[in-house]
Amino acid sequence: MDAAASTTDKPRSGNGRGKPTSDRPGRSQAGPAPRSGGRGSHISDRAKQNIVRGLGGKQANVLESRITDGGLRLQVSGLSESKAAGNPDGGLDALLSFLERKASGLDSKSNRAVKIKKSSKVGDSVFITASPEDIATILKLNNFNFAGAILTIRALDASGKVPDASAKTMEVKDQLRAVLSSRYDEDSKLLNLSSLVADPGLNSMGMFNGSTNTSKIFPALMVVCNDLFKSRREKREAIVSVTLADNGLTKVDEIHVLAEMFPDIKNIDLSRNNLKDLKSLDAWRKKFRGMEHLILVGNPIEAQLAELKDEIMKRYPKLHSLNNVQVRTAEEVAITVAANEAARNPFPVLGPNFQDVGGVGANFVTQYFALYDSNRNGFLNQFYDAHSKFSLAINMTAPRSTEVSVPVQPWLEYTKHSRNLLKINHLNARMNRQYKGVQDIQTAWATLPATRHPDLHTQGDKYVIECQTVSGLPDLTGQAIHGVDGLMITIHGEFEDQAPNNTEKSLRSFSRTFVLGPGAPGGPQIRVVSDMLALRGWTPLPQPVSSQLPPQQQQPTLTPEQQVLQQQEAIATQLTEKTGMTLEYSAMCLNETGWDLEKAFAQLPANAWIGGIPR
């Protein structure tokens, strides 16, 4: 539907499912969920289409960055799921400014400013009009992160519809899927991409006639292969090893897209290429952090491996075999991974401090998460009242482990509630995202995905829980003008959820801080004064260090004489506290009574000491 038919344009001023099998090609399905955070995928959907379309037309100079489109209109989705949706205008101005600013900055060598001529918002979509050159640039922002939401940007044809892929493009995709299918070994989970220039299927398509070489066909193969999978997990489980032998590669920059689309590959064979030195591998320097086996046989760099081995092992901390020779044991790999994690967290984490009062904190913690998972709304009245407050904040930039990590699923169900004060600047949004009272909290909880927390009794290592007393909490009875005492409980842990729009379960890390206080008459005996939930991408909990001193730092054993002196000092201190005398004078009195505290105190005149001052 053309947006112009339902709303007035606003002018701008200024400025596959499954894995490839060996007997039949898979069907093209939607690719994996876009990454949350950062600049999105380096290769946009439009770029992927152009790569394949260019190959179908035997264009030798097809590049991902060369994106052109004849349309003058774009449809942008994702604004309603962003934090800017709470702005008075629904976030439209913030979105348009973001698109112009980001698109203008894509080409650092050009000072040309991208300008949006007109815009209109219809439902959850924003339609924009710009020049053909600016449209092509804005399209590159597809899958970018805007205010906590992933943007989807599509070009529209003259009728306002997304243009269908041409029959020629579909034919090329089918042929490339057939090539991938013939090169995949399901048993070993190996994708064989060696000697592509000699592949009969690619040659029958005329891919190597003229100037098209391996570095040009490879991105198209990866685009098609990527579309066979629905999620990063499916890719990780289907393809464990890749061989890229005999492709005449001079540097891995020519196949950089492999690391972007299949980052979890464990075994890579680069045999018999033309990789001359370590610099030829620099494009993968911070990629493939889980790689376990690398083969460089038959490359000029092989003669330098004795000198380069340590640097290669440093780049790939889980690497245990280089050219089929073991370079690290499993134990050494574990030590390396632990050392890398320790370097990221140089400060030791002390064990939790749990200062409970009457078992209140322990009883609350042991009940809470089981009830939250199984009967979230039903137990609200058990702990919450009309004065209880709940808020939620998402930290999308929290540090994450580079060695042990899981994909981050979209945050769409959480973003509309997020009250991250570093990101939310408008007072109304800040106020509206703090929920007060059972009814408001219940409404907010009803929109959050179902969760499953680890069992506290059997998986206690999944939590770090601290408890301490606090003072000055509001007294709902009005009797204590200075407030009442309570507890503050902080819990760090993880949970699983599965939002309706996510293809697989999400594992997320959280920190949740409760303030507990006495309840009001007629309400819960112990009430939640405040409940603050902070969410972030999953990362393992740091292991607390032992509070015990190492053997060499243990206190030395005291001699009998030292033990007697220590006891006498303790007795003299007690007499000093009772009388106010100096420690030295207390010792003199005790010495006369054989260090009997009661006798020494009884022998003092009743009026001899008043507040420690002799009369």
Number of helices: 18
Terminal CA distance reads 100 Å
Give the class from helix and strand content and strand pairing: alpha+beta
What gyration radius follows from the Cα positions, in whole Å? 33 Å
Largest sheet: 7 strands, mixed
Shape: extended
Helix content: 25-40%
Mean pLDDT: 77
What portion of residues belong to β-strands?
15-25%
Low-confidence stretches: 1-8, 13-19, 21-42, 51-71, 547-555, 610-615
Strand order of the largest sheet: 8-9-10-11-12-13-14
In total, how many beta strands?
A: 23
What can you see in these coordinates?
Helix 1 crosses helix 4 (167-182), helix 4 packs across helix 6 and helix 16 (560-579) packs across helix 17 (583-592). The termini are far apart. Mean pLDDT is 77; it is low at 1-8, 13-19, 21-42, 51-71, 547-555 and 610-615. This protein is an alpha+beta fold. It is 29% helix and 18% strand. The strands form 5 sheets. The chain has a 7-stranded mixed beta sheet with strand order 8-9-10-11-12-13-14. Strands 15, 16, 17, 18, 19, 20 and 21 form a 7-stranded mixed beta sheet that branches. Strands 1-3-4-2-7 form a 5-stranded antiparallel beta sheet, with no helix packed on it.
Labels describing this entry:
single chain, 615 residues, alpha+beta, seven-stranded mixed β-sheet
